[in-house]
From TrEMBL:
Keyword list, A-Z: Coiled coil, Metal-binding
Coiled coil: 77-104
Molecular function terms, GO-annotated: metal ion binding
Organism of derivation: Chitinophaga rupis
Protein name per its UniProtKB record: Uncharacterized damage-inducible protein DinB (Forms a four-helix bundle)
The keyword Transport is annotated on this UniProt entry: no
Family: Belongs to the DinB family.
InterPro entries registered for this protein in UniProt: DinB, DinB/YfiT-like
Binding positions for a divalent metal cation per the UniProt entry: 134, 138
Length: 169
């Protein structure tokens, strides 16, 4: 069945991306949660929260079919440990929702709203893929913030400049 293959692929992709996301979040110190590289930029703590929270969006898409930015409640985290625990919890929820999803849920529609106004609508199955891409995008932004603050960037898809064995003498 096509959806079963897609669900398996999404579960594998979540697992593959989760390690790098976790390694990044583990390195974000609380004293830099308010850091912004530019006045228009997100604060590092909020960006890190998005990296921890976006996997939850997958569960909400499948189980509720809608996210409204006006009513979606962000968890308040005060420590790096809480941030990482939030990621782990949201990954479990995403994996559980994907594993238990019915054909009807996967073929259903997903709506993204702001204060009840429709911003975007698409089938749940396609929205899962774009959500994983969105997650990776925000993690990439976070690594730039890390670099700007001399926080060692972990290996993500290959060696990082911060991996000692790959630094030039």
């Amino acid at each position: 069945m096509k959806s079963t293959l897609a669900v398996t692929a999404y579960l594998e992709e979540l697992k593959a991306e989760s390690g790098a996301s976790r390694k990044c979040l583990e390195r974000i110190p609380e004293n830099l949660f308010d850091y912004k590289p530019h006045p228009k930029s997100m604060a590092m703590g909020y960006l890190a929260l998005l990296v921890a929270e976006i996997p939850l969006w997958i569960a909400v898409m499948i189980e509720q079919g809608e996210i409204d930015f006006a009513t979606f409640k962000h968890k308040e985290v005060k420590t790096t440990q809480e941030l990482v625990a939030h990621l782990d919890e949201n990954l479990r929820k995403a994996e559980q929702a994907l594993s238990n999803a019915t054909e009807e849920q996967l073929q259903g529609d997903f709506a993204l709203k702001a204060n009840g106004q429709l911003l975007f609508a698409s089938p749940v199955m396609g929205s899962i893929s774009s959500t994983i891409n969105h997650w990776v995008h925000h993690r990439g932004q976070l690594t730039v913030y890390m670099r700007m603050n001399d926080i060692p960037v972990p290996s993500i898809y290959g060696p990082s400049a911060d991996d000692n064995q790959f630094q030039k003498s």
